[in-house]
Amino acid sequence: MKVTGNASGSGSSREARIASHSHIKGLGLTEDGTALPLSQGFVGQKSAREACALILDLIRSKKFAGRALLLTGAPGTGKTALALGIAHELGQKVPFCPMVGSEVFSSEVKKTEVLMENFRRAIGLRVRETKEVYEGEITELTPTEADNPLSGYGKTISHVVIGLKTVKGTKQLRLDPSIYESIMKERVSVGDVIYIEANTGAVKRVGRSDAYATEYDLEAEEYVALPKGEVHKRKEVVQDVTLHDLDIANAKPQGGQDIMSVVGQLVKGRRTEITDKLRGEINKVVDGYIERGIAELVPGVLFIDEVHMLDLECFTYLNRALESTISPHVILATNRGKCVVRGTEYDAVSGGEGIVSPHGIPLDLLDRCMIVRTLPYTKEEIKEVLKLRARIENLNLNEDALDLLTEEGVKSSLRFALQLLSPASILAKVSTRTEIMVGDVQEANTLFIDARRSARSLTSGQGGKFL
Ligand SMILES: Nc1ncnc2c1ncn2[C@@H]1O[C@H](COP(=O)(O)OP(=O)(O)O)[C@@H](O)[C@H]1O
Ligand SMILES: [Mg+2]
C-alpha cells in the first residue's frame, strides 16, 4: 500500500536526491566486518566503511543511543553514499531521511520545526492490524435510486446492492450510498476484485479477476486470482509508516480514506496543522500500540548533510532530540574544517567574532559524535565507480572515453566526472550513436566546467568584471 508515497508531501524530491546513489546497496562487508574492494556498489574507502560497520554493530546492539555519527571529508568522497549504505544495512523497511543543513532556514517555518519534522520522517512504525473485510470479485453492482426528499427534481441513491464472489462462496451486500461514492472513485466495475473494510467502508480495488484475462500480450490491467476463503473475513495487514505520515494523516483526516483506517484516525477531530499538541497525542497512541504489541518502532536514519549550516539553536535542539527515547540514528556530514558556529557571531562571550569550533559544531555536540573521515579516491577507484554508474544507467562507455572521464575525476572530483556522464550520453544520442566516445566527453566538458575552472575564468581575464 502506498501510505508513505501518498502522505509525505515532498517525498519525491527526497527520492531524487537519492537517485544518484542507486548503485549503493549496502556497505559491502564480509561477515566479520571487513570491507571488500568492490561489493554492493561500494568501491574503496575501506577504513571509513569498516568504521561504519562498527557503528552498525553498536546500533544493532542498541548501544548507539544518544550519539551521532559525523562523516567528514572533501566533497564527493562518498559521505552521503556511506550514510545510505548504513540505512540499507539496517534493513529494507528502515526509513532514510536525507536533509541539508540549510533547509532549516525559511521565513515561514521555525528552524526547530523543520528539524522536528525530519526527525519524525526518520522514525518508522510497523503496524499490524487485523481488519474485518469483505473481499471478492464483483458479480453485481446495482445502485438503487430513490426520489430526493429535499427537492422535487433529481434522484438520490438510497443504497447499493453489490454481489461478491470468492472460491468458497458468494454474498450479496446492501451498502450505504457513501460507500458507493468510494466505489465510483476507485472506478470499479463488474469483474473486478475489490475489498471493502467493514468498519470504515473504505474500498480498495485489487485488480481485475483473471477469469476476464484476455489474450493481449501487453495490457494495462493487473489480473489477480479469485480470492480464497469466505467473502467476509478477518485479514492481517502489516503496514510501514513513519511518524510524519501519521502526523499528516491526522492533521488532515479528510484525506484518510485510502490511508489506513486506524492509523488515519488516531486522534479525533479536525485539524489542519501539525502542532506539538497533535504530535504529543500521536506519540501517546503510538506508545499504547507498542505496549499492546500492535506496533513496533523502527528507528531509521536521519542524515543531515552540510551540518555546519545549522546554527546554535538547531544544535541545542539536536542535543536534546538525541536524548529522547524515540530518536532515529543521526548521521551528520560536513566538508568544513574549523569554522565559526553559526548563530554565535553576535555573542558577547566571543566578542562579536563568533565561536570557532571544529566543523562549525559546538563542542557539547561534538562530544557525542563518533567521527569518521572519508579520503580522496585514487584513479583506479574513480574508474571503478564510473564503470559502475555507466552500467546502472545502461550507458555504453567507450574505453577511451572512460579514461578521459577518469582523468577529469582526478583533476576535479568524482562527482564532477559522474555528472558528465549524462550530458555525454545525450550528446552521443544526438549523433545517433549508442556508444559514448571521447568526443562526447570532451564536448560535455567544454559545455560544463568544474568549479575550479569556473572560478579561475572569473578572477582572471575577461570574466573578472563579474566579480
Ligand atoms: N566508494 C564509492 N563507491 C561507489 N560510489 C561512490 C563512492 N563514493 C562516492 N560514490 C558516488 O559518488 C557520488 C558522490 O558521492 P557523495 O556520497 O554524494 O559524496 P559527498 O556526500 O561526500 O559529497 C555519488 O553518486 C556516490 O554514490
Ligand atoms: Mg553529499
TrEMBL record:
<keyword id="KW-0347">Helicase</keyword>
<comment type="similarity">
    <text>Belongs to the RuvB family.</text>
</comment>
<dbReference type="InterPro" id="IPR041048">
    <property type="entry name" value="RuvB-like_C"/>
</dbReference>
<keyword id="KW-0156">Chromatin regulator</keyword>
<dbReference type="InterPro" id="IPR027238">
    <property type="entry name" value="RuvB-like"/>
</dbReference>
<dbReference type="GO" id="GO:0016887">
    <property type="term" value="F:ATP hydrolysis activity"/>
</dbReference>
<keyword id="KW-0010">Activator</keyword>
<dbReference type="Pfam" id="PF06068">
    <property type="entry name" value="TIP49"/>
</dbReference>
<dbReference type="InterPro" id="IPR010339">
    <property type="entry name" value="TIP49_P-loop"/>
</dbReference>
<feature type="domain" description="AAA+ ATPase">
    <location>
        <begin position="65"/>
        <end position="376"/>
    </location>
</feature>
<keyword id="KW-0067">ATP-binding</keyword>
<comment type="function">
    <text>DNA helicase participates in several chromatin remodeling complexes, including the SWR1 and the INO80 complexes.</text>
</comment>
<dbReference type="GO" id="GO:0000812">
    <property type="term" value="C:Swr1 complex"/>
</dbReference>
<dbReference type="GO" id="GO:0005524">
    <property type="term" value="F:ATP binding"/>
</dbReference>
<keyword id="KW-0804">Transcription</keyword>
<keyword id="KW-0547">Nucleotide-binding</keyword>
<keyword id="KW-0378">Hydrolase</keyword>
<keyword id="KW-0805">Transcription regulation</keyword>
<keyword id="KW-0234">DNA repair</keyword>
<dbReference type="InterPro" id="IPR003593">
    <property type="entry name" value="AAA+_ATPase"/>
</dbReference>
<comment type="function">
    <text>DNA helicase which participates in several chromatin remodeling complexes, including the SWR1 and the INO80 complexes. The SWR1 complex mediates the ATP-dependent exchange of histone H2A for the H2A variant HZT1 leading to transcriptional regulation of selected genes by chromatin remodeling. The INO80 complex remodels chromatin by shifting nucleosomes and is involved in DNA repair. Also involved in pre-rRNA processing.</text>
</comment>
<protein>
    <recommendedName>
        <fullName>RuvB-like helicase</fullName>
        <ecNumber>3.6.4.12</ecNumber>
    </recommendedName>
</protein>
<keyword id="KW-0227">DNA damage</keyword>
<dbReference type="GO" id="GO:0006281">
    <property type="term" value="P:DNA repair"/>
</dbReference>
<dbReference type="GO" id="GO:0006325">
    <property type="term" value="P:chromatin organization"/>
</dbReference>
<dbReference type="InterPro" id="IPR042487">
    <property type="entry name" value="RuvBL1/2_DNA/RNA_bd_dom"/>
</dbReference>
<dbReference type="GO" id="GO:0003678">
    <property type="term" value="F:DNA helicase activity"/>
</dbReference>
<dbReference type="InterPro" id="IPR027417">
    <property type="entry name" value="P-loop_NTPase"/>
</dbReference>
<dbReference type="Pfam" id="PF17856">
    <property type="entry name" value="TIP49_C"/>
</dbReference>
<dbReference type="GO" id="GO:0031011">
    <property type="term" value="C:Ino80 complex"/>
</dbReference>
<keyword id="KW-0539">Nucleus</keyword>
